[in-house]
Amino acid sequence: MAPVARWPVVRWTAAGVLLLLLLAFPLVFTQPHPRHVVITIFLFAMLAQAWNLLAGYCGQISLGHAVFFGAGAYTSTLLGKYFDLSPWIGMAVGAVVAVAVSQLIGYPVFRLRGHYFAIATIAVGEIVNTLMINWDWAGGARGLFVPIKRPDSFVNLQFHQSKQSYYYIALGLLLLAFWITRKVEVSRMGYYLRAIREDQDAAASLGIPVAAYKQRAMALSAALTALGGSFYAQYILFIDPDSVFPTALSILICLVAVLGGIGTLWGPLIGAAILIPLGEWTRIYFGGTGKAVDLLIYGALIMLVSVIQPGGIMALAQRGRRRTG
Amino acid sequence: MRRAIGLLSLALSAVLATTSTSHAQAPKEVVIGAIYPLSGNLAQIGIDSITAMRMAVELFNGKSDLNLPGMKKTTEGLPGLGGAKIRLIVVDHQGKPDVGQAEAERLITQEKVTALIGAVFSSVSATTSQVAERYGVPHMNGESSSPTLTERGFKWFFRTSPHDGHFTLAMFEFLKDFEKKKGVKLKTVGLMHEDTLFGADSGKVQEELAKKYGYEVVVNMAYRAKTTSLDAEVGKLKAAAPDVFLPTSYTSDAVLYIKTAKTLEYVPRMLIAQNAGWVDPQFVAEMNKDIEGHITRSPFALDLQAKKPLIRQVNELFKKQKDNPGGRDISEAPTRALTAFTVLVDAINRAKSTSPEEIRKALVATNVPADQLLMPWTGVRFDEKGQNTGVRAILQQIQKGAYATIWPFDLAAADVIYPLPGFKDKK
Amino acid sequence: MTAEVLVQGLVSGLLMGFVYALIAAGLSLIFGLMEIVNFAHGEFLMGAMFATFWAWALLKLDPLVSLPLTVLLLALFGLLVYHGLIRWILGAPMLAQIFATFGLAIFLRAAAQALWGADFRLVKGPLVDGRISLAGIFIGLPQLVASVGALCAFGLLYWFIRKTETGLALQATSQDRQAAMLMGIDTQRMFALGWAIGAACVGAAGALLAMFFYIFPDVGATFALLAYVAVALGGFGNVPATLLAGVIVGIVEVLGGLLIAPALKYAVVFSLYLVVVLWRPQGLLGRF
Known about the structure:
heterotrimer; A: mainly alpha; two-stranded antiparallel sheet; 14 helices
């Protein structure tokens, strides 16, 4: 468990230094690719944090989070395309849509437990993916181009000259996810969620409204994921069902969180900071061979980590702290 | 927490290690970035294309008397650039538009590539071309068949190959010609296309053109790509019984279609495929007699080598490549890549410079004559949208286990087999 | 839509359903034993299909002849995976287990491409080929043999679990690990055995499938997805129920394609599954 009760001065300072380093990064690294890698880290850390709210704190393991990501990406893009609305408004509407979808999905599937829940969320993800592929008004399989707006502006959330603005927006979204998670962690809701995770029946017998709190965690998680989706659409400027709705994306979000350590505040960021560069690095150095060596290494490393450190990297950090006192 | 930060800084340094590649640019070297699918469903297409381009790089860097664009020369390297050598950087986009985008950006800003080529998948070409447009770097494309790509008003995107509009037009032109020539009447068509970008585009164009040419579409269905069974799909076809069946499928689904059609004894009077799976050499070799009489649209025809010795010369070279196990014949995918690549290098050579603007001008001024092409086109000339206007789609039919050109009739090496003979080894 | 087309669809769906069921059986067995979902199950299937292909291409062995070899090979592979990977994550949280088997899936898929290339392959001219026609209904002989083979494999599996001493021990372990341990059953051995049998099932399915399906590194993905649904539909850990669930998946897939739209057929399968588990959260014949 992450330290919940006390946050001594040292920790605040350390977090402050980290934040400063992150703020300074684009000033030092002006090349687009390093920035792109860090932006992707932020995006996935944020998505994993959103997932963590539901899975890590509440114990509901969803393998269908791409649904919310895609809802965000498609809502903002469609509103921009057909109604010329600013992506920021689209982002907000996307979050609302994702919450609505999450409640619709949540109501039935929360009756399921453990693996049944996980497989059901995969099924939901596949159904939504299939429907989107066949929905012509939303671009169908051909996908959607985000209408290009020039010049670069914050209102249009499009920056063609430099990635710096994208970088800070992604960082902002990540901080938002952290702030919300932290708020939840120390609130009454956080205790309820953990109680549900540890023993759902016991929690219910203590008078915790289990179903309502699961739905709340799902809504928060979905809204945050949708924000990430809208950001992705504005960043890549092209979306299609295969890139924003696939089950592989849901699983990647889960992998990031699990690698870092679920149910912890810092796990998602650490997971993303390791997994994303690893994927980039193996692809850049070995992807050109046509022998899939990059994926070979990637897969082997994932297995290795899960065997050596099943609790995620945070467990390692915490064990270290316990040892040093 | 402190450990967490330690780990984070470790990870950050990993990012830096990832991204701080420092290729001191050797003088007089032209670097070209190739973005292709090298893993996943269409990996083989990417691998074959890269093999063909590596072969071309070797020829360009050495001496060669092949009559390909810019290749006939007595000196080593590119004469226009004082003998500069070409270096090809190959990357895998895994079929993902965001990976393609990131790679395009990295190749341009860090590897300092002079031009980009790729990316087979129309969805990936959509994002890589956006990056090229933003940085003002020429982007050559030889495979993506989505018409949208050249309708965006891009300055830096050039496509040598026909798009689905051209291809599908050819199918219906052929049908009309064929009806006239043979005095048969074909009234109905059935469409079956896979549900990714490729299939969706193809299905849409086919439906529009069928109406325009006066054919009734009796069945039009999308199906899930990489499906585990096509029983329902073939069942629907049997029930609708169109005269002409137009499938759009990649290799995996094409194989499954043949197997299922054979089991359910479904034989339309005529089958015209939208290339892809049907021109995969492996598919042709494996399905053998079962696809006798199948027609496909294609921009490339190996059997034209009788009329064009260049095709034979290139094919002999291709068979000897070490990345081509088993010495397979050159097929459509590598030929398309080779054509696009040689046109690009030729333009760079004519530009006499690696300045993007000079190369762009040279590309705009491209006028490759038909005799320098492996394709049966009238040449390579780009319109203001970057689309090659010299394209010509041909139709080929499997006859005795190999593709024979059947249309346009003036190029035809064989007569059309009609109706489809059906499956040989009936039990 | 004529009745003939519908009946044809039902028959084809039924035959395919038996194969789905056999793929799902291994998954279900492993889950029942140790509550682990093997996310590399599709890659096991791919491995079995490649084994069959190479036996045919290099040794000229027909898929049906090499079937025992493939089953044995996969059983050994199951043991290898258990001892090399699963044994180390037995006590780990569910997510770490998902993570591990998912990594294994990526690894195996990449290994297949590195070793054998990305080309599509087919077993040409298998011993059993062609089709028979009954009252206008066509039945592919390879499909027929595959489904009969799948049923036989199911029968064997059932007999083994219910009638042999080892099978009973396996069942005991699956029902109550602690009690089984107290009764002197070596649960570690049972787990290893479970992986061997689970992989053997998918080995048989792969060998049978290779008679009429193409083979390439990514072939397992869609089959595995249907297998997960079949397992959850039947009830996790209930092996006989997966037979029923597999057949339902096979038939609904074809009917969905015929009556609704081919593009939506998997959406129909998944929706049906959702409806069923909402009505019976533990699956059709599952137990909590």
